[in-house]
Specification:
5 helices; 7 strands; hydrolase; NUDIX_hydrolase-like_dom_sf; disordered N terminus; 178 residues; DUF4916; hydrolase activity
């Protein structure tokens, strides 16, 4: 009997992922990148510009799956680097605490969060970044908004799947909504 060595631990094939998504919730992280001033007050919120599978352009938070046997902090760092680039310099504490937990359902209306592919549970974080952010992977751009601009109806309507609601919760959490 020959032993096979797993070369990509934690990754599922597309077929295995589709099967898992149909049977159980998948763990995700959502991150709201922010710039803070010298006193720690949030001055800017970074939102990604993406093109969806249907060709629609939208604004988005940093988001992604937590892999099997991956610490949540490591997943957070991996997705921040993947979307913002290696020089973003995120300041993630050793033991990060989410500001909320968002539960995405494939059926609209169960919660404000919707993902047609799956039932997903996402731990949501506000993450200060101090470095140079250069979007990578499937992100077209990263735009920095003031808290007022980020909570505006115009920006909110550009966000899909309830991420606008999640953004407003993040802004409230850091004291940026009146």
């Amino acid at each position: 009997m020959t032993e096979m060595t797993e070369t990509t631990p934690g990754w599922l094939s597309p077929e295995e992922l589709e099967s898992a998504r149909a049977r159980m919730p998948i763990l995700y992280i959502d991150a709201v990148p922010v710039r803070v001033d010298e006193t720690g007050v949030v001055t800017r919120i970074g939102l990604l510009l993406r093109i969806g599978a249907d060709g629609a352009v939208s604004r988005a938070l940093v988001s992604g799956r937590v892999l099997h046997h991956e610490r949540v902090r490591d997943a957070l760092m991996r997705h921040l680097e993947k979307d913002l680039g290696p020089t973003a310099l995120p300041r993630v504490p050793a033991s990060p605490q989410p500001f909320t937990i968002a539960e995405y359902f494939p059926t609209q209306g169960v919660t404000p969060y919707h993902d047609p592919r799956q039932h997903a549970v996402s731990l949501a974080y506000v993450v200060p970044v101090a470095g140079d952010c250069r979007p990578r992977q499937d992100a077209l751009d990263l735009v920095w908004f003031t808290p007022e601009e980020a909570s505006s109806p115009l920006v909110q309507q550009e966000m899909l799947g309830g991420q606008g609601v999640l953004l407003k919760q993040a802004l409230a959490h850091v004291g940026c909504l009146s």
